[in-house]
Amino acid sequence: MRRPIVLALLALAAACSANPDPALTPAGSRERPIAVNTDAPGVVGYYGSATADPERVKTTAVNAAPDQVWQALPAVYQELGIPLTANDPTIRTLGNRNFVVARGKLAGKPMSTYVNCGFAEMGGFAANEYRVNLSVVSLVRPGPQGGSEVQTLVEATAADHRAPQGRAPRPCTSSGELERQIAAGVQARVGA
Fold first, then answer.
1. From first to last of its 192 residues, what are the pLDDT tens digits of the chain?
2. What is the pTM of this model?
3. Helices in the chain by DSSP H: which ranges?
4. Contact 52, 153 (CB under 8 A)
5. Dihedral angle, C-alpha 16, 13, 50, 2, nearest 10 °
6. CA-CA distance, 103 to 169, in Å (whole number)?
7. Strands 131-142 and 93-101, sheet pairing
8. Which neighbouring-strand residues pair with 86?
9. Rounded (5°) CA angle 26-31-32
10. To 10 degrees, the CA torsion angle through 4, 152, 55, 63?
């Protein structure tokens, strides 16, 4: 099976020869690689936090060459209103690890469409009422049967901007909708 392989030891990461985009692995963070691009031995894909569950990485097959899919991906992010702050073409990984959504909407839809952060103290969905810090990272790789795979990980937290300082942000879970829209946007652009 050609799914991302969970890394068990940080020593493996130290042995890798590739230097990923610093925006994908912020300096001073406790982040570590959680997936290896099995199509490029020794190249590590940086998807998200050290606690990210690899089952949360959504994979979609695309009937187009990886280079074609890679070329389409930035336009999809732009269409969704997600500015790209990280881009590593050596492992075909791009995204934004620190995107703040302050007005409760992304791509014209309420944030609760994309993430579940529970309920706000005054009622309603916290994702729509609170400031959401979003991390969206996608990787393109060759598919096991030809074509390509687009793998996307969405992570988020929400913080009440009216709450006293020091209150920890609450974790959110992805609904899968943003990952679906990224994959559908790529498929539409490459004619798959």
1. 433 322 221 222 223 333 444 444 433 333 333 343 444 433 334 444 444 566 789 999 999 999 999 999 999 999 999 999 999 999 999 999 999 987 789 999 999 999 999 998 888 899 999 999 999 999 999 999 999 999 999 999 999 877 777 678 899 999 999 999 999 999 999 986
2. 0.74
3. 10-15, 66-80, 126-129, 177-190
4. yes
5. 60
6. 16
7. antiparallel
8. 95
9. 115
10. -70
10: helix, strand or coil: helix
Tokens read off for 139: 């990787």
CA distance 149 to 142: 6
Tokens 């959401």 belong to residue: 132
Q: Report the alpha-carbon distance of residue 99 to residue 167 in Å, rounded.
A: 20
| Sequence letter at residue 36 | V
Strands (E), 21-143: 35-36, 44-45, 58-62, 86-88, 93-101, 105-106, 109-110, 115-116, 131-142
Across-strand partners of 125? 119
